[in-house]
């Protein structure tokens, strides 16, 4: 039985994985290869490269001209090391993106402004630990697709000032839900998505035209991870590249794990 399941999981791209036993196995595989944090894009507050937050409603906002909003009024605040309140999260996210940062960065779709990943309560410095009245700071993380940079903005919630900016290259946090959906959109539009579309039609009788017809879970791919891959994925790691677990909504899995979507270059490659 174990050999049969492994054989099913290694079938070529486009084979629909069906049946309860195989679905359980596919779920186990996902858990085994997903990086720490939420690789599925479900909202979390993990912070840093190990955490990601799914930001809702960004797709529509990206279609509008970028506008830097005034900092919102100080709303309900937490105490001590309490998690950030909704008001604090909104305030931090607004303060973190200056006019210059918005103008010089791009999100996953190429629109102005960075791709927001997560918003978390920042850690205290060693000399602040255990003291009364320690400041509440938020850490807002982004991916800037223009420079392929992971950007961390630290915001002092009391003063309303950005107190630190850290930029790193080659750091790839788990993709958000929006990034996984964009990867699916690119795959559907590419010739290498032919097998996915054929199997979707076999399973549903309908044409696959939109990412929201699928449930997608993304995880980061780096060149050389278990498979050197073709030259087309050599930049993965510096570029933001993902692989997808793909499922018909309320239906069977479709195996797309051999495909790598380079979100930075908007290209698709197949692993051998």
From TrEMBL:
Coiled coil: none
Compositional bias segments (type: Basic and acidic residues): 99-110
Biased composition (Low complexity): 51-63
UniProt key word Membrane: yes
Keywords annotated in UniProt: Membrane, Transmembrane, Transmembrane helix
Transmembrane annotation, as ranges: 12-35
Protein's name according to its UniProt entry: Tat pathway signal sequence domain protein
Species assigned in the record: Streptomyces hygroscopicus
